[in-house]
């Protein structure tokens, strides 16, 4: 049935409400349901257009929304296309594959990596199911190193979906950045993200370490 589930307060950025209110397993749970489409928009522009796409879709849709405001990634000319990832930046050394709240942080991490002599591509994967396997495979083949970044468990979410693509289509090294098989914790949302290594600097450090190996 065409049921649209629009769920706010995803991930650990709920902040002070703590682990009982921080959902870091939802992408994995929804992705496994037959026929379910999973949208995870990165900013207000994309969220608005993803909502319209969800209303026009066939079958069930899960729309993942975060609580805090985030910087705009997309301009007024942006057009959301379900199932098609967006290339936000080109790069030759590695590929940052991000979704939702982490997209703008991946862009910030790219700038930090650039200062360190590492050229990173950035992909916005707003549709986690069906994932844009062609785009992910193409950039995996191009750079040989993929770093997934998500405000979700590293198990079963974006990183899991990317791993499936790489295993079947384009073998490449993969580093998954996210919540490491644990529940959330209470605190101001930015501090909670810092605690779990979901800052631009932490992302850049992990990507740099993987590239230097």
Terminal residue distance: 48 Å
Order of helices and strands: EHEHEEEHEEHEHEHH
Classification by helices and strands: alpha/beta
- Low-confidence regions: none
Note the beta-strand portion.
15-25%
Global mean pLDDT: 96
- The order of strands across the largest sheet is 4-6-5-8-9
Task: Tally the beta strands.
Answer: 9
Gyration radius from CA atoms, angstroms: 16 Å
Task: Choose one word for the global shape.
Answer: globular
Q: How many strands, which pairing sense, and closed or not: the largest β-sheet?
A: 5 strands, mixed
Helix content: 25-40%
- Please give the count of helices: 7
What's the topology here?
Blueprint: E1 4-7, H1 26-31, E2 37-39, H2 44-56, E3 61-64, E4 86-89, E5 94-98, H3 102-115, E6 120-124, E7 127-129, H4 133-143, E8 145-153, H5 158-168, E9 173-179, H6 189-195, H7 200-212
Parallel strand pairs: 1-3, 2-3, 5-6, 5-8, 8-9
Antiparallel strand pairs: 2-7, 4-6
Helix pairs in contact: 3-7
Describe the structure.
The chain is an alpha/beta fold. 35% of the residues lie in helices and 21% in strands. The chain is built from seven helices and nine strands. It has helices at residues 26-31, 44-56, 102-115, 133-143, 158-168, 189-195, 200-212; strands at 4-7, 37-39, 61-64, 86-89, 94-98, 120-124, 127-129, 145-153, 173-179. It has a five-stranded mixed β-sheet with strand order 4-6-5-8-9, with helices on both faces. Strands 1-3-2-7 form a four-stranded mixed β-sheet. Helix 5 links the parallel strand 8 (145-153) and strand 9. Helix 3 (102-115) packs across helix 7 (200-212). The protein is globular. The mean pLDDT is 96.
């Amino acid at each position: 049935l065409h049921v649209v589930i629009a769920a706010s307060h995803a991930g650990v950025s709920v902040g002070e409400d703590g682990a009982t209110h921080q959902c870091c397993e939802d992408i994995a749970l929804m992705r496994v349901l037959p026929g379910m489409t999973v949208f995870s928009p990165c900013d207000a522009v994309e969220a608005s257009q993803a909502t319209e796409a969800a209303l026009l879709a066939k079958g069930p849709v899960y729309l993942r929304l975060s609580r805090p405001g985030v910087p705009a990634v997309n301009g007024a000319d942006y057009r959301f296309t379900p199932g098609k990832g967006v290339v936000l930046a080109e790069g030759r050394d590695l590929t940052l594959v991000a979704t939702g709240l982490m997209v703008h942080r991946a862009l910030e991490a790219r700038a930090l990596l650039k200062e360190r002599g590492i050229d990173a591509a950035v992909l916005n994967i707003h549709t986690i199911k069906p994932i844009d396997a062609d785009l992910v495979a193409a950039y995996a083949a191009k750079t040989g190193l993929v770093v997934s970044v998500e405000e979700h468990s590293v198990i079963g979410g974006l990183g899991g979906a990317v791993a499936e693509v790489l295993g079947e289509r384009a073998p490449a090294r993969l580093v998954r950045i996210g919540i490491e098989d644990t529940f959330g914790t209470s605190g101001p949302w930015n501090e909670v993200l810092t605690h779990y290594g979901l800052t631009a600097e932490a992302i850049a450090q992990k990507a740099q370490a993987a590239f230097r190996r």
